[in-house]
Each structure stands twice: as C-alpha cells, then as structure tokens.
Amino acid sequence: MTTTTVSPAPLTDPALLTDPATHAEGDPHAVWAWMRAHAPVHRQPATELPAFWSLTRHEDIRAVYQDGATFSSARGVLLRGAARGDDPGGGLTLALTDAPRHRKLRNLMADWFNTRAVRALNGHIRSATRAVLDRAFAHGTCDFATDIAGRLSLSVIARIIGVPERDHEDLYRWTDEAFEAHTSLLAHPRIVEYFTELLFLRMEEPTDDLVSALVHGTVDGELLTEEEAVLNCENLIGATENGRLALIGGMQAFLEHPGQWQRLAADRSLLPGAVEEILRWTSSATHSMRVAARPCEIRGERIEEGDRVVLWLPSANRDESVFEDPYRFDISRRPNRHIALAAGEHFCIGSTLARAEMSVLFSELLDSTSRIEQTGPVRRLRSIAVNGPERLPVRIVPR
Ligand code: HEM
Q: Which CATH number does the domain 14-398 belong to among 1.20.120.140, 1.20.1510.10, 1.10.630.10, 1.10.472.80?
C-alpha cells in the first residue's frame, strides 16, 4: 500500500487565496493550514474584491451552512469583483435563493436527483461511460479531463435536463468553450439561445424531463419566468463542473497513489469509501460565500449585517481537528465527515448523481483497463471558485 504524507510549509498571507495563480501553481493548503491555526476568522480588506471574512475551520464552516437565516445566499455564493455588484442570478436560481422560496424551488427539481432517480439513470451512466472509454481506447492517448470526465458528466446532466441525444455534442462543445475561456455559461450566446428554444418546445409538448418541470411547475402558485427556467438549466450545467473536477481529481489521486488503486482493484467493497475520500481530497468547490442577513459573532469576531463570509471548503476538509493525518489520501478512511458537498439546506442537490458517476467510472476503469498512465504534465485551473486539474493527459490501455 502506498500512502503519501505531505505537510505544508508555513505560508502566512491570506491575500494569496484571492489570486487564481495560487490555486493553479501555488500551495493554498499551506495558507489554509496557517489560518486554521492562527486566524480562523480572518477579515480580508477590500481590494478589487469587496472586503470579506474568511472561515477555514470545519466546525465554523459547517455552522454557517446550517444557519441559512443568518447567512444568505441570495446576493451570490461566489466572490465577485466589487465593480460587478451582486450576482444578477440572486433570487432566481436554486443556489442563489433563501428560504422559504429555496425549499419550494428545490422541491420542483428534487425528483430528478434523488436516490431512486439516480438508480434509474444507472444504465445510462454506464453506457455513457463505456462510450467515452471506447473512444479513449481507440485513440490510445487522451485528455482525461475533456475526453472522459467532461463528456461523461455533460451527457448525464443533459439527459436529466431533457436535451435530446443529437444535441449533446453541440452542448458539450459550447460548455467546453465557455469553461476554457473561464467565462460564465451565460456569456455563450448559443447556450442561452438553445435552452430558450428547448423551453418553448416543452411548453407546447411537455415530457418527463427537468425542463418540462421548470416550465410547468409552480412556486407559490406562480409559474417560473422564462429567465428563471433558463438560468436554472444553465446553473445545473455549470454545477456539473464540480462533478467533472471530482472525476479528474480522483484519477489524478490514483495516479499519484498507485497503491490505493491496487487496493481498490483487489477489494471493490472499498469503492464507496474511495468515492468519499476522493470528494474530501479533491474538494473541487474552493469556496462558498454567504452574506450576513443580521449581525452575529463567530469566535468573538463581530460580523455586521451585509458582511461577506467566505467558506474555504478544501481547508475544512484538511482540518486536523476532524481528520486524522488529513494530508494522506486513504480510500479506507473512516470516519470521513467531509463537507465537500456543503451542508444544510443548500447541500449539493447533485450529490447522489456525482457519487454514482464516480463509482461507475472508476469501476469501469478497473474492469476494462490493464494500465492507465500519465503522459504529460497536469495543468490546474486558474480560479478561486473551483479547483483541480483542467488537463490530465493519459494513455489508457484496454484489457
Ligand atoms: C453531478 C454533479 C453535480 C450537480 C448536478 C450539482 C448541482 C448542485 C446544485 C444545483 C446546487 C445548489 C443546491 C441548492 O442551492 O439547494 C449545488 C450545491 C453545491 N454543490 Fe453541487 N452539484 C454536482 C456535483 C458537485 C460536486 C462533485 C461537488 C463538490 C465536490 C459539489 C459541491 C457543491 C457545493 C459546495 C454546493 C453548495 C453551494 C452553495 O449553496 O453555496 N457539487 N450543487
């Protein structure tokens, strides 16, 4: 069994965390480790970003997630430049809505993401996985990020939303272009146009898909507006970026820890635990932001109404007071109380789906390949919102 223990070198400037280069080439874990020990509730003064509080401990982050009445999501859940103001999707999409509307909107979508729905989708996840792997086998080498993880996660969410199979390739190309350019999916005119057209089609002819539910479902007796329906579709596609990053980060973790891959190959009962460890290890959502809806105190620091509070998830998932030897990748880690998928009322609605995609992909890789090797350098995302490899060149040799 190969396990690596890496303790970060001391690095102490919290401002580094707002620089995308830190997450691409630097060592944000070293900064978070220092902050957990010395400044667990830290106020970052305004720059081109507005001032914000940083939380780095598991306990504090979990408590904020669980107190939606004090910590609002409606003005945005990601840090944005001060000049850009609040998120224009505030109050319109699931992630950017507070109770009680949030619960009602979530109920409209929940049926497509619960355990039963995901179980029913398992056959599709498996055939989509086999299709991307067959393509990779045919090429010999590929980029695990785009050719495998990206195609797989897009194909699954597109099916849930109700995008016909013939349009998956176009949608995949547009989202890949938007991710590549680091712009919002809304900046891609074809994506908005596409979902608007789909919406009108389902208005006339509803089917059993998520778009139809968004078009015909009501919240407090009112239909959603066209803007709300389109934004929620776009948001679901955007949210799968996290699922994609967990798949790529999981593969990278196994390539760096071949002993863990061999353990899994020898004992498949370790798979559910491996999925949880990948979620903890990769923590692909780098932060969630909340805005204080009323004054409060965290560890003796006074948070004023309107203050932004940033929750650094990868830090929570390396908190040494919760995880034994947190810098070790260990697929049999137990307990594993990670909060990579958030907590409380905004707990990731795609969690069951993301776990299913990981289980299927890694078990199919174990079944159908004799060797997987990295063929070039990994390139990490330059972003403070999500983190992980955006390029992972590999050679996959079938059995
Ligand atoms: C199939 C893939 C996924 C889909 C469709 C998805 C979808 C969503 C959606 C719609 C929300 C908003 C829920 C709400 O406000 O009630 C959400 C929240 C969240 N998801 Fe996921 N997700 C996926 C995978 C992941 C993965 C793999 C991670 C991290 C490892 C993740 C982390 C989160 C976090 C941290 C939140 C809370 C955001 C906030 O409210 O601040 N998601 N997810």
A: 1.10.630.10
